[in-house]
Amino acid sequence: MNNQQLAETFSTLGDILEIQGEVIYKILAYRRAAQSLGDLGRDVNDLWREGKLREIPGVGEAIAEKIDELLRTGQLEFYEKLKKQVPAGVVELLKVDGIGPKKAAVFWKKVGITSLAELEAAARGGQLRGLPGMGAKSEEKIIAGIEALARKPTGRTPLGKAIPLAREILAAMRVAPGVQAAEVAGSLRRMNATIGDVDLLVAARDSEPVMKAFVGLPGVVRVLGQGAVKSSVEFANGVKAQVWVHPPARFGTALQYATGSKDHNVRLRELALDKGLSLSDQAFVRQDGKEILCATEDEVYERVGLPFIPPELREDWGEIQAAREGRLPKLIEPGDLRAELHSHTTWSDGQNSVLEMARAAKARGLKCLAITDHSQSLGVTGGLTPERLRAQRAEIDKAQKSIGADFRILQGTEVEIRADGTLDYSDDVLASLDIVIASVHTSLRQPRDRVTARMLSAIRNPNVDVIGHPTGRLIPDREGADLDMEAVLAAAAETHTALEINANPARLDLEDALVRRALEVGCALSINTDAHAPDHFDFAEFGVATARRGWATASSVINAWDVSSLEGWLKDRRASAAIAIQSPAPKRGKAVASKKAPAKKKGKPVKKSASRRKPSKRK
Known about the structure:
By secondary structure, the protein is α/β, with parallel strands linked by helices. Helix content is 42%, strand content 12%. It is built from 24 helices and 17 strands.
């Protein structure tokens, strides 16, 4: 079994136990183990053979024994026993947004529902509204959730799952005989939130040893095709990969062609035609039939009169025109981040102490960490009461003394935005904290006007500094809330409230198109990992990639500023926000469609708002 299969097993164990009404600490133990296994950078089989299972965060003696049994025998007796007690179809109900284990248990035990089809029929037939907490609107939400489930894209791999595999393949290809260069391509190189297959390009004069090395990679379970130019394989985790081999002299045109979106490449070919050239993945061709070869992508763009365009921008969202006019932004880089403003510890649902998280952040070159454990109403996470929040301050102060003055630890919270729009702490509690992130985790399926009003209420609270994972989406399992994003972005710009790009690859929220629109209207951004364990800090690259796809620069990201500027902004913005909310809100246009690039016009750049506010004079 691989990491993902083990993670799914323990996640399902947790779900079954909650359906059965097991005590919460056992449920959380399995879910923490599942998260750690899913995020694990190494093959769990290697750790098992080395006797190091207990080194995995969240894996104690009991869970280590279960992993051992699974890896030795391919099954777990405890798991098989539980599956006989709870029908598989009941667990499947949890795929529907808004249905948790407790509700699934009620449907099963009270109505006898054991499949999605039975649930849909019961909801459409009005058979659920007599259950506790259920009414006609609840049935409508369930029907909508089932319909949304049917619309989910299939065959797409989340970026966070594809990148580690792609890097393993690249490392193997780069040491294959005769290889001069190897790169990922396609939507993976553009860092889309999800991808189809893993595409790779290799520069080599002789393709045979490259193809032999590729189809013989560890983890390959099926060779889908093998040829002189292209080979395709499938890995044990279900991900498919394909590699193309090109002569080194043609590698630049091949890589550019395989990376850009279809529309971006059409634009580039039009520019080539304007210069009397035709462009393919092989070469430029003059009108007299002679080829112009390009070994690098820089040469391809130079030949059509453009500077190099970063892969993340190659979507035909105005980047060609911006490049022609010298207006391409200097995109933010992972090394620009100086602070992590959203993290969790053992005070709520994190896996490590304050000091352990701070040391891990410092080891990654950061200068500041905000501890933002969950607030009290999110019970499943062990959220903090105001009393526990005050007790946490003492541990943070102690950790600050231990780690030294060259690293800053802030106390904050991820405060829940309740279903009625109120916040989980009083204003005086929020005002006592260094930073406040407000997030929505529940009631995401409220009607658009209600969920939008709820978000606007939080944004207009002067004590709220950042809105965490604004839409609440989970990739690929849950659509985000149906927010009027134009209203949300306008309010955030007006109150100087930063919007988070949550870097967890299961979120990547805000998505790229909304990042672009947020920058146009003058919003500040914050790229955070939402770390629940030290290795989650490595998610930062995914958040930066999403920011880059949205054309973000370091100056627009508050945690890319130096710490003194960041703390000054946090101190000053609450006063300015209090003034802003007393002023009339600006007029707003139509809502932004969350799945399309904003203001996309072929061959034309997206105009920037004339009222765009600079994030900070201190910067």
